[in-house]
Amino acid sequence: EPVVVEPAYYHPLTGVGMDEDLSRLRPVAVMINDLKAAQPQLGVSQADIIYEMPAEGGITRMVALFQSLDGVGNLGSIRSTRAYYLELALGHDALLVHAGGSPEAYKDIPAWGVDNMDGVNGGSDAKIFWRRRTNGYEHSLLTSGEKIQAYLDQGHFRTEHKDGYAESLRFRDDGTPQGGTAAGKVSLRFSPYKTAVFDYDAAFGKYLVSQFGEAYIDGNTGKQ
């Protein structure tokens, strides 16, 4: 019989076994631009969770969650936040990185105590952002895991969860439902502007994503 060795720890956002305990760290939530003109996005392949939600007018925006910033390169392009994105970040006790926000979001950030780094009205934390010269001005703002971590290391925010915090996510080794049917291709239509397509790659053992009729590429790696 094979010997099953339980990992020392489990990743709090993915459930993957690890040798290092990351459960005390507050994750970082990054607002990512998802307009077609802003492709390719940078750093999304390094995210542990990506939430995609409608913003307005049929377009979507993404919140990319990173439990650790180690090895995370350039991130972007960075866009504005909304109140419901703040709720997602707070649900994970995350530190939020964004560039501007709706009037409601700017009202809720101090009221709800959201620790945030803002590339538009951020004061000194604007130093973690820069602009690339392509894709147009509104799609140009970038940051990086290294710059965010360097800023956090200066002690601006609490970087660990408070005592007693427990991530609410739960994981199963195999979540396949009883009597389920094969899902080789899954399409998620957000609006006439945006449909995401997930094609299962049996050899890879994962879904490969497409959007806007093309492979969903991380600009840092050039890979789907």
Structure description:
The protein has a five-stranded mixed sheet with strand order 4-5-3-7-8, covered by helices on one side. The model has no long low-confidence stretch (mean pLDDT 94). By secondary structure, the chain is an alpha+beta fold. The chain has three helices and 14 strands. The protein has helices spanning 83-91, 103-112, 145-152, and strands at 9-10, 17-18, 28-33, 49-54, 60-66, 74-76, 95-98, 116-118, 130-131, 141-144, 185-189, 195-201, 206-211, 214-215. The protein is globular and about 60 Å long.
Gyration radius from CA atoms, angstroms: 18 Å
What share of the residues lie within helices? Answer: 10-25%
Q: Helical stretch count? A: 3
Which residues sit in consecutive blocks of at least 5 with pLDDT less than 50? none
Terminal residue distance: 38 Å
Proportion of strand residues:
25-35%
Order of helices and strands: EEEEEEHEHEEEHEEEE
Number of distinct beta strands? 14
Main sheet record: 5 strands, mixed
Secondary structure category: alpha+beta
Strand order, main sheet: write it out: 4-5-3-7-8
Oligomer: single chain
- Provide mean pLDDT, rounded: 94
Overall shape: globular
